[in-house]
Amino acid sequence: MNFEPLQNTRIIDAALGKEVDKIPVWIMRQAGRYLPEFRELRSKYDFFTMCQTPKLACEVTLMPIKRFELDAAIIFSDILVIPKALGMQIELVSGRGMVFPSPLKSPADIDTLQPINVKEKLSYVFEAITLTRHSLKGKVPLLGFSGAPWTLMCFMVEGESSSTKSKAKSWLYKYPEESKRLLDLLSDIIIEYIVGQIEAGAQMIQLFETLAEYLNKSMFDVYCLSYIRKINASVRELLKKRGIPEVPMVIFAKGAHFALKELSESGYEVVSIDWTVSPEEARKVMNPNVTLQGNLDPCALYAAPESLKQVTEKMVSTFGKKRYIANLGHGIYPDMDPDNVEVFIDAVHSF
Ligand code: CP3
User: Fold this and answer.
1) Whether the predicted pLDDT of 1 surpasses 90
2) In a domain, 4, yes or no
3) Read out DSSP for 15-70?
4) Atom of ligand 1 nearest to the CA of 208
5) pLDDT tens across 61-85, in order?
């Protein structure tokens, strides 16, 4: 595919360990409800309709890029497009979040998941990526993403938000082999999905293992890390086989403070960390050949501008300018003030 050359390569350079003129920055969930223009468009469309309509997904992806000096765009979509593609019904219910009316109740339900052709079933995401690449005209790189297997399994088994994830975790204890069968099935789809996004024009990929924080180290090794590794290796292998150039990959395993070293040796160029990990500790234990991403406590965006500026400056000075991408330690919340996003971005860039 023919796209315009990239004008801002900071994020890609930082991911690959090259020098940058300024520290690059983007924000998890940068296109979302904290933006009045998003809420305005969202009032007219259902959430998944927005994801499934490339023109709308593109428009939303560009919203934060028009407003702020961000160094990357992230395609507007959701990690739950995969369970949806497998035939599961999902509704975004106000006040309850994502609800699956018929979650997986026992391993026998794994067989109700429909075998899919990723290229066809998720073609709307690929089309949205290609359209957005063209619309960006090379201004900043476009990131693609996917949920990681354990995080998707959690949603598919829990059915709605839960503070303990005890249903999904009970599967790991009661049905370890069947759980692995489900995680393997999801991994195979995720691999094709990521390759499809890269083929469509995604210039960096982030894998979200958001619910890693519910597991201990030994469970994480078996049910997360092995799949995180496999996905990375298989994506690269498939890209090579199909003659598609590789792109940097980011792993964000929220709460996996016990596996920083392992994550930094799992094949990803970038490891994203949450705010509970100190930058010093992360640099000390991790492979020096990975780039770190993170990790401002999102709630720092509630601070007055002057103190937000101070905590941001402290954070970036501790990480340093080399092998670093500034971000929050998790997604921005809907009630945050867009003006403070600008304060955060400016504080990073002026360091
Ligand atoms: O910058 C972006 O906005 C990119 C798009 C993006 C969304 N979701 C849009 C969205 C990305 C990268 C995600 C990832 C995602 N989705 C994760 C992993 C990252 C994380 O933040 O933990 C998870 C766990 C989900 C699942 C999900 N999506 C839930 C549980 C919910 C409902 C609760 C909530 O947070 O609102 C969503 C909805 C969702 N995804 C919205 C957006 C903008 C809100 C939609 C709305 O209410 O209008």
Assistant:
1) no
2) no
3) HTT---SS--B--TT-SSTTSHHHHHHHTTS-HHHHHH-HHHHHHHHHHHHHHS--
4) 18
5) 999 999 999 999 999 999 999 999 9
Could you give the count of Cα atoms lying within 13 Å of 190 in the half-sphere of its Cβ? 30
**Of all protein residues, whose CA lies closest to atom 29 belonging to ligand 1?**
98
Task: Ligand 1, residue 75: give the atom nearest the CA.
Answer: 4
- Ligand 1 atom with the smallest distance to the CA of 331 is 21
Length of the chain: 351
130-155: b (≥16 Cβ within 10 Å) or e: bbbbebbeebbbbbbbbbbbbbbbbb
Task: Name which residue sits closest to atom 22 of ligand 1, judged by CA.
Answer: 210
Confirm whether 191 is domain-assigned. Answer: yes
Chain mean pLDDT for the chain? 98
- What pTM was computed for the model? 0.98
221 CA to centre of ligand 1 in angstroms:
26
- Percent of the chain residues topping a pLDDT of 70: 100
Q: For residue 50, is it within any domain? A: yes
CA geometry: angle at 143 spanning 89 and 221, to 5°?
70
Q: Which residue range(s) make up the domain with 218?
A: 10-349
Question: Domain with 325 in it: what CATH number?
Answer: 3.20.20.210
Best mutation site among 65, 79, 194, 332 for ligand 1 pocket (most ligand atoms within 8 Å of CB): 79
- Which amino acid is residue 334, in one-letter code? P
Distance between CA atoms of 52 and 34, rounded to whole angstroms? 21
Residue 242 forms part of a structural domain: yes
State how many domains the chain has: 1
Residue 61 φ then ψ, to 5°: -55, -40
**98 touches ligand 1 (CB under 6 Å):** yes
Give CA separation, 84 vs 162, 170, 264, in Å: 20, 23, 31
